[in-house]
Amino acid sequence: MAHSLPTLPYAFNALEPHIDALTMEIHSQRHHKAYVDNLNKALDGQADLGSKSIEQLLREIKSVPDSIRQAVINNGGGHANHSLFWTIMAPGAGGKPSGPLADEITKAFGDFAALQAKIKENALGQFGSGWAWLVWDGSKLQVVRRPNQDSPLMEGLVPVLGVDVWEHAYYLKYQNKRADYVDAWWNTVNWANVAERFANAKAGK
What we know:
This protein is mainly α. It is 51% helix and 10% strand.
C-alpha cells in the first residue's frame, strides 16, 4: 500500500496573512510530496512494511531494516509530521484552547501563556531545521524539540501539536525572523483538532 500526499484541507491562501499562499503551495505540494515519494521508494519491495500505517511504521522504527531505516526516519517522519501540521491549522482559527485540553495545559505548564513561551523557546532553540512539539507522554503533556523530521512517535510519544521551523516553512515571508513566524503561527492553530488529538492520545487511541 503506497503512501499518498493528503489533500490540503483549505486553499493555499487561507492562512494569510500569517502564512502566505506561495509558501503553503511549495511546502505542501513540493516538500511534502518529496517526502511521500521518497518514502515509497524506500519501502519498495518491503511488503511487510508497506502495509503499515505511517504512525505504526514510525512507532516500530527499530523493526525497519538498517539499510532503509534512516530513509524511513527522514521521509516517513516528514510525511507524518506534515500530515499532522496541515490539520492542526485552519483559516479563522487561533485563540486559546478550552475544555480538558486547557485544563491539562494549566496542570502541566501553569497557563496557556507559559505553554506558548515554552514552545517558542524550543522552536528558537532548535539549531537548524526541526520542530517544536507538544506531546503526550502517557501521563502528562510535555514540550520537546526534535531535529530534522524526527518524529516523537519513534520514542513512544504522541504529538498533539507541532510547529515546523524548517526554513522552507517561513522564509519567503519572514526571512530569518523565526520568532516572528512562531508568534504569527499561533493565529492559525485549529484548537478543535488539537483537542481531539489530545483526547485520543490520553485515551490511548
